[in-house]
Amino acid sequence: MRLGLYLNLYGAPGERPQLADAVEQAQLAEQAGFEWIVLGERHLHRPGYHEILTSLTWLAAHTSRIGIATSGIVAPLYQPVVLAETLAHLDILSGGRLTAGFVLGYRPEEFALYGVRQRERVARFEECIDIVTRLWTEETVTYEGRFTSLHDAYLSPRPLQKPRPKLWNGGRVSAVLERTARTCDGWTTSFNELDADLPEKIAEYQSYPRGAGTLGNEVILCREGFCAPASQDARKSLEEPLRDLYDAYTGWKRTSTDAARYTQGWDDITDRSVIGSPAECADRIAHYDAMGADGIILRIQPPGMPQSEALKAIEAFGNL
């Protein structure tokens, strides 16, 4: 099973974690055999949140082999040509290690910040993915869209990976699963997706026709993760900072349909996570492998967890 490490980019002046902590975790994850380091995106966040693309570039410069991925960029907020060019250059700078994961976004504040109408997000998403893909793979692109017009446009240089870097998309409703199959190469779940719902959603995603030029139908699960010598050690290290994170999510996700899932108890969380002793974590990974997952992205360090604890857990996963 391929494992990814979701890095905590929260930051406040004078407090951990700093981006140097993310570098330390990324380097350890590379040594431990993780497949990817993965970053998310957030705006208008008072505690602080490092910007996704410049942070990914910094992490790429401080690692050499591990894949660098996003889960995900809020695609409707971006001018597609700028995004295509930036990501292409990041793939080149990293030596061909980029996987670009996208999401629709859900926070009204973020759309207002960028001057984008939230009701246009699906149309903007599809246009963005189409333009990015074509600029990465075609010599010249002429495009007349609802939001973007191009005439004989091209990128030089294009991404290092051929035919292009893989694209992931995250979401849970049927429309997102169909869109992912049609336009992208892999589906990423929410961290709070219930295990009981996963087999049906995986089957539904894989049932939709693949779009022309797509590169597969990977299933990548996002899960809370922590490995410690014993399950009670994992709970002691993780529960309080994770609960603080989930309390914050109830405010951020007030307009999202999954907001109620962040009020669940510890047993509910562990039932849909990879948390516990090495044996328990190995069993959970095998459980997801049997379910049909191609990879698991683990969020090991919620805000407030000491760096030393996160490093121990990363090393423990590498030893499984």
TrEMBL record:
Keyword Zinc-finger included in the entry's annotation: no
Q: What is the protein name for this chain?
A: Alkanesulfonate monooxygenase SsuD/methylene tetrahydromethanopterin reductase-like flavin-dependent oxidoreductase (Luciferase family)
Q: Which InterPro entries match?
A: Luciferase-like_dom (IPR011251), Luciferase-like_sf (IPR036661), SsuD_RutA_monooxygenase (IPR050172)
GO:BP terms for this protein? Answer: alkanesulfonate catabolic process
| Cross-referenced Pfam families | Bac_luciferase (PF00296)
Question: Organism, per UniProt?
Answer: Kribbella sandramycini
| Stretches assigned to the Luciferase-like domain | 17-294
Q: One GO molecular-function annotation for this sequence?
A: alkanesulfonate monooxygenase activity
Task: For this UniProt record, give its keywords in alphabetical order, as a comma-separated list.
Answer: Flavoprotein, FMN, Monooxygenase, Oxidoreductase
